[in-house]
Write a structure and sequence with these properties.
By secondary structure, the protein is of the alpha+beta class. It is built from 1 helix and 4 strands, in the order βββαβ.
């Protein structure tokens, strides 16, 4: 079985979200980002299935390239 886990990078849930002054979105400069908590659960389950020998796991994320990120 092949498993694909789509992962979304979001603003960390402990961070106070600030709206841009022009109201077009949220401020993301110098804000801690993390994976979406339900995505963490999906990754964990995919790893468990892979380690049990029942499948192959792939994770993918789509986002703009940021300094400090890397390809897996």
């Amino acid at each position: 079985m092949k498993i694909l886990v789509a992962v979304k990078r979001v603003i960390d849930y402990n961070v106070q979200v600030r709206v841009k002054e022009d109201g077009t979105g949220v401020v993301t400069d110098n804000v801690k980002m993390s994976t979406n908590p339900p995505d963490d659960n999906a990754i964990e389950e995919a790893v468990k299935i892979k380690e049990s020998g029942k499948g192959k796991r792939n994770c993918c994320s789509y986002s703009r390239r940021r300094k400090g990120t890397r390809d897996c």
